[in-house]
Amino acid sequence: MALIAAMSVAARANEGAGPTTETLDAISVMANADSGDAPIRLAAASAGSFDLAELTPAQDAASAVAPIAGPPVDTDEPATDPDRYRSLGGRIGAAKWETLGLFAYITATQAYWTDDTESFHFKDEGWFGRNTNNLGIDKLTHAFNAYLFAEFLGARIARKTGDRAAAALPAAILSTGLQLYGEIWDGHKSDSGFSYQDIVFNTAGAAFSVLRHSVPGLEEKLDFRLLVRPNSEVYSFKGKRHYEQQHFLLSLELAGFRKLKTSPLRFVELQAGYRGKNFFAADRAAGIRPKRDIFFGVALNIKELFFKNSRSRLGRVIGSGLNYFQLPYTGVYDYY
User: Fold this and answer.
1) Distances (CA, A) of 89 to 1, 66, 159, 169
2) Beta pairing partners, 222
3) DSSP string, 131-146
4) Separation between Cα atoms, residue 162 and residue 312, nearest integer Å
5) pLDDT in tens, 219-240
6) 230 — alpha (psi -120 to 50), left (phi > 0) or beta?
7) Cα(130)–Cα(291) distance, rounded to whole angstroms?
8) Per-residue pLDDT tens for 20-70?
9) What is the reported pTM?
């Protein structure tokens, strides 16, 4: 009631020349009568007006209620703990479960594909000579597998540490160790053996991953990829037919260069690689000379064309996979 009376007094004051000191005093007294611990303060800023904001009761700081916090926002950014992963050992430990999974994968595949075994032994398999069993394609397979393991583990470590460059070396160490474990299996196979040539190429593949992520801008420009040419079986899982359909290549993405990002040339890749042919036992018996080809070519950047800004998880997975696998029939090559 006092508030109503106070506003009535203010209204009558507005009919005259303006509020007097007595009028303001009256408003203050009547307003305070109803307000208790939270007095309403009215002040006439000018004749015939007052500030509605001043009608809001002042809130005591001690009784202020903190804003209600909703559930945490789910983002794609992982939580990082720089101190925990500062050391090399800490970064290696960041991928312990992924490494264990790859260890189990190698164990399972080696056990499945291993036929006859014998005591551990070494074997000099050669490099890329025509007299080698697979013209060196098996060596590039070792390099690619080590590279692929290092890339995967590096990405997992970086997800926890937030630093992809610092994740490259521990990932390469883990990858090299996993490949060494696989080579120990080869050392017990009757048709194979522990090969130091394989160890060299395992190390080279992992080292290329370190280089790719340590040199600024190189990751966006240069890829090491596998191109699989379908055969009558579509895909052969082992043996010489398996190696024959594998073409390994380096791909230079023009989209990775700043000045070409908006140019039509961003859809172009320049590639160079290696393949082998006519190295089956039947070919050699027939006197057919094994053929080692270095090839050069131009290919379409499928990732840039269709998956550059994909919003779906599947699209992003495919786009990432195209950094490592070249789709057949998407390039034109000249073989030498």
Assistant:
1) 75, 43, 16, 11
2) 252
3) TSSSTTHHHHHHHHHH
4) 23
5) 999 999 999 999 988 999 888 9
6) beta
7) 8
8) 444 444 444 444 444 444 444 434 444 444 444 444 455 554 444 444 444
9) 0.75
